[in-house]
Amino acid sequence: MSSSTHPVNPVLRVAPAAPAEAAAYFRASLVFHADVSDVAAALSAGGDPGFVVLDSRSTESWDQGHVPGAVHLPTALIPEQAGQLLDRSVPVVTYCWGPGCNGATRAALALAELGFQVKEMLGGFEYWAREGFEFETWEGKSRRDTDPLTSPVDTENCGC
Q1: Model pTM?
Q2: Which of 15, 63, 75, 77 could hold 138 in an S-S bridge, CB 3.0 to 4.6 Å?
Q3: Rounded to an integer, what distance in angstroms lies between the CA atom of residue 65 and that of residue 139?
Q4: pLDDT of 9 higher than 80
């Protein structure tokens, strides 16, 4: 039976891109994004990771929890303060709350417009905490149990 006699399902209603186009798109995505596991691995390896992590949320959000060693610079303050707090020769990895928030994207845009090299940390603080990485609050260091829906429980390597 030919495919023309079957209704097209929602996944294939728009055909996949040609392999070369798909490769270019996904390569470009990796230029702009890093995931929390890769950021955590680079930060925990010791020494200079070659980038700085920037939390673009409010002070109240920062106090609630943030990535250890991150620079706190709310998005609205980036134009006036980024030049004093950050080195343009060091790439910046931005984050905000999580996948439902575009604050890290707006922060990355503001930094790029100021001449910084920048990536966005996919998953934000939500996935940092859900994957069981240590974070700091106004009360000190903390850690949550690993959420088995976001990261393997018994190993640090998800195999991705």
Answers
A1: 0.88
A2: 63
A3: 9
A4: yes
